[in-house]
């Protein structure tokens, strides 16, 4: 067995961004046939989310988050005038729906997921921090 660590750089253009194509390209670039990818999101207000790709699901997901954790509802974290300190709702949204770590499987050189599954990076702070990253430890398995 062989392993290596890699950082995957992301340039986000929306709060819920599909990263499945990023991982498919990563698998191809590194010639992975069978592997486990243990991924970790280092940013406090970011998460990996596994959702289906059905029509309207991402929009419903965003609406659910807005309704469940609206801005201005909790204020103990707030420090007005301080960047990123009026955003507890973003922290709680991230914790409600995502994971800071996730293990992905590679089988026969493909991301091994359900037929209707997609993988997203959720970043409610993308307007201020569009560049995010995912740390990835790759465990290459015997062929």
Q: Main β-sheet, in a few words?
A: 5 strands, antiparallel
Helices, by number, come to 3
- Mean pLDDT, as a whole number? 88
Beta strands, count: 8
CATH topology: Jelly Rolls
Radius of gyration from CA coordinates: 17 Å
Summarize this structure as a short list of keywords or feature phrases.
single chain; 143 residues; alpha+beta; Jelly Rolls; 5-stranded antiparallel beta sheet; 3-stranded antiparallel beta sheet; 8 strands; 22% helix; 35% strand
Architecture overview:
The structure is a single chain. The protein is built from 3 helices and 8 strands; from the N terminus they run ββαββααββββ. The model has no long low-confidence stretch (mean pLDDT 88). The protein starts with a strand and ends with a strand. By secondary structure, the chain is an alpha+beta fold.
């Amino acid at each position: 067995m062989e392993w290596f660590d890699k950082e995957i750089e992301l340039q986000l253009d929306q709060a819920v961004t599909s990263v499945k194509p990023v991982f498919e390209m990563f698998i191809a670039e590194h010639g992975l046939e069978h592997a486990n990818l243990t991924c970790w999101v280092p940013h406090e207000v970011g998460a990996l989310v596994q959702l289906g790709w059905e029509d309207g699901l991402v929009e419903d997901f965003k609406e659910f988050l807005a309704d469940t954790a609206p801005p201005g509802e909790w204020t103990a974290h707030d420090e007005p005038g301080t960047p990123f300190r009026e955003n507890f709702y973003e922290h709680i949204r991230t914790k409600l729906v995502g994971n800071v770590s996730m293990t992905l499987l590679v089988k026969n050189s493909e991301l091994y997921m359900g037929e209707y599954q997609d993988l997203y990076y959720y970043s409610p702070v993308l307007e201020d921090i569009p560049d995010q990253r995912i740390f990835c430890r790759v465990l290459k398995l015997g062929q």
